[in-house]
């Protein structure tokens, strides 16, 4: 970069000196020299532009790699077990909903247990994501909240019989599988780009 600037300045200076020293030069010669000066100046500006763009690109690449490494080190290597633990535990809790004629107290106990599992999962896993990527963090919060709200609605809706296998699979099993798949997919699609701060919807 420094060599390009030095060479360009040298060319411009040399052309200016020659232009001043040749008093009888034709207008064609002067036009040619002016054109050469313009080209040299353009090359200088273009070289500076390329230098700035390359530096910015290198910085962005380094920042992406840093975020990916943070995600791997802080989350995937050490805490991913909590994601699988959460879904295993809610599987165990929701299975209890297959029992026919549960009392309101039984339903409340199951629902409270599910909510507690969610709080623990957020504390041990989800909150750490906010230090790395806000979009992934909000994606987890949104999906887990929607999942647990759906459980609560299905548990206490008198028109939903979760002891009926097809109904249980539609209201419980399907939502668990879709949520787990979505959350894991967030990690696979992560490129290290800095995410805008906004809320992800339920879809």
Distance between the termini: 49 Å
Mean pLDDT: 79
State the secondary-structure class.
mainly alpha
The residue fraction in helices comes out at: over 70%
Biggest sheet character? none
Residue windows where pLDDT falls under 50 for at least 5 positions: 196-203
Number of helices: 6
Global morphology: elongated
Summarize the helices and strands and which ones pair or pack.
Elements: H1 2-21, H2 27-76, H3 80-94, H4 104-129, H5 134-156, H6 165-188
Summarize this entry quickly:
The protein is mainly alpha-helical and 203 residues long.
What are the key terms here?
78% helix, 203 residues, mainly alpha
Describe it:
The protein has 203 residues and is mainly α. 78% of the residues lie in helices and 0% in strands. It starts with a helix and ends in a 15-residue tail after the last helix.
């Amino acid at each position: 970069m420094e060599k390009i600037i030095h060479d360009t300045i040298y060319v411009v200076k040399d052309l200016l000196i020659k232009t001043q020293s040749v008093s009888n030069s034709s207008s064609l010669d002067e036009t040619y020299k002016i054109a050469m000066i313009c080209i040299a100046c353009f090359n200088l500006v273009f070289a500076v532009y390329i230098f700035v763009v390359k530096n910015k690109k290198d910085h962005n690449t380094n920042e992406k790699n840093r975020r990916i490494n943070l995600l791997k080190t802080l989350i995937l290597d050490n805490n991913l077990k909590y994601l699988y633990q959460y879904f295993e535990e809610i599987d165990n809790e929701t299975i209890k909903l297959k029992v026919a004629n549960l009392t309101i107290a039984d339903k409340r106990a199951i629902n409270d247990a599910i909510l507690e599992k969610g709080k623990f999962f957020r504390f041990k896993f989800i909150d750490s994501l906010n230090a790395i990527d806000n979009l992934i963090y909000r994606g987890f919060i949104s999906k887990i909240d929607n999942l647990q709200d759906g459980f609560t609605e299905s548990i206490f809706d008198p028109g939903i019989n979760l002891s009926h296998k097809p109904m249980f699979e539609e209201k419980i099993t399907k939502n668990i599988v879709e949520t787990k798949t979505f959350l894991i997919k967030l990690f696979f699609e992560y490129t290290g780009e800095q995410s805008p701060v906004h809320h992800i919807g339920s879809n």
